Amino acid sequence: MDRTRRVVHQPARPAFSELFTPKLVTVLREGYTLRHFKADAIAGLTVAIVALPLSMAIAIASGVTPERGLFTAIVGGFIVSALGGSRFQIGGPAGAFIVLVAATVQREGIDGLLLATMMSGIFLLAIGYLRLGTYIKFIPYPVTVGFTAGIAIIIFSGQIVELFGLKLAGNEPGPLLPKLVAIGEAAGTINISATLVAMLTIAIIVGLKRWRPGWPGMLIAVGLASLVVALLALPAETIGTRYGGIPRNLPFPALPALSLDKAIAVLPDAVAFALLGAIESLLSAVVADGMTGRRHRSNCELVAQGFANIASALFGGICATGTIARTATNVRSGAHGPVSGMLHSLFLLVFMLVAAPLASYIPLAALAGVLAVVCWNMFEKQAFATLLRASRGDALVLMATFLIVVFRDLTEGIIVGFALGSILFIDRMAKSIAVETDLPLVQDDVADGSNGGGAYDSSEASDADTVVYRISGAFFFGAASTVGTVLDRIADQRKNFILDCSAVPFFDSTAANVIEGAAHKARRAGVRFIIAGASQQTRRMLIKHGVKRPLVTFAASIRDARAQLARKTEAE
């Protein structure tokens, strides 16, 4: 008999240079023309106009001075675009980090924040170079929706004081419920001027988005609000009255205060920054891919995020990551490649050098209005409602993540949500496996061009001495109990047992142990045990666990298994 060996060619593992070549190099190799530069310059300017007020607003909400947000967008954003694995990613400070950054500043001070940011950059470098970026995609969708919605609630609650110009008796509490109690007690200190400025800012942003979506609504709103406060001499607090303005240049790079005790103290914050930065940046890159049809390099992107956070900390900035809204703006503005992101950072630097004195007139209520709109957009209302209706499991994961983020801690919310999502996945996979017996089996394809069109011969399914069981689905620890219960009965009546594994895409150690136990039981009962259709990977797993001759024999198909039994019967 002629036997043909099937050789499966595995795809070659990409070289290091292929995985970590920045998209900037790729774009330049393709040929970069003046037309491309003009497109990138227009897109970069558009994004810079959006990023200018937003970066300062995020910094203030994070408990640091407004210029630190600009330092982050300028230094971190430039490196993200220059070294990143996405053509269109825009880096800078992100609203998702406000809660974590504010908590770190309150507990460890600015030096602790800068050290944690630098350490998170080192962790991101390690994640990228170890090629772990592809595993970020395994975070369940309900978890991302839940923690994003929770962050939006927390950020908005932190802006209520500035939106209404309230005067709290003491420092603003961190947890949500005590914060709301303190805000309620300060309700009598409402500043009508600040409230009107905030409402004006929100109205302009919303109105321009509806009637003039191409206009830079946030910058126009903040500019008009600043003009109103200055011309009418309204008693609303501004960047100048609270912070004394912003500097007109970048600081010299400097290492934050380093000590082993401080590093240990901020280690949990650094880990949280790295994980959230990886999630946020890769989600942003995926959004850009969906809008453009391009593909990003996830590990290269994480390496760029790592260098960006290290550099941001050296220049006194806060955490940098890919930002979904600014990245989407970059794409919609016609960007060609990473040069637009680099120009966005340079434009911000020019704005700071030229217009820094004007920043003193920006009302804090206007920046709070900007963040209120950002929070409204962050809360994915349609996705939230859809997941609540989708299934009880998805609703449980969503609400657990959301409530823990809001009332406990962001990191805990992600961990609990991921754990619940994993348990839900295991439960669903365990229920998807099926064990069938004595069913009509699809015969091998024949050369007449049909697929299973021949008549079924019932004698091939079973006979008086042989039983055939077929397992369909992933056979892993979650399904071991279900399959094991069925296999316990294999020696009850028949002399020959064929286990069809051709529809099993995955075996783990627990599954192999179940098969080993069934094989030993069959041997003690004098039952011949044949495993048919197992892939090479499955065979190796079973053999490693002792599932081999003389316990069992392997066959390429059920037909081959029956042929084995026929030969043994003739030999006897």
From TrEMBL:
Source species: Mesorhizobium mediterraneum
Protein name (database record): Sodium-independent anion transporter
PANTHER family cross-referenced by the UniProt entry: SULFATE TRANSPORTER
Keywords, sorted A to Z: Membrane, Transmembrane, Transmembrane helix
Ranges where the STAS domain occurs: 465-565
GO cellular component: membrane
Family matches, as Gene3D superfamilies: STAS domain (3.30.750.24)
Transmembrane stretches, start-end: 41-62, 68-85, 90-106, 112-132, 144-166, 186-208, 215-234, 270-290, 302-325, 345-374, 395-426, 467-487
Membrane topology recorded in Swiss-Prot or TrEMBL: Multi-pass membrane protein
One GO BP: transmembrane transport
Cell compartment(s), UniProt: Membrane
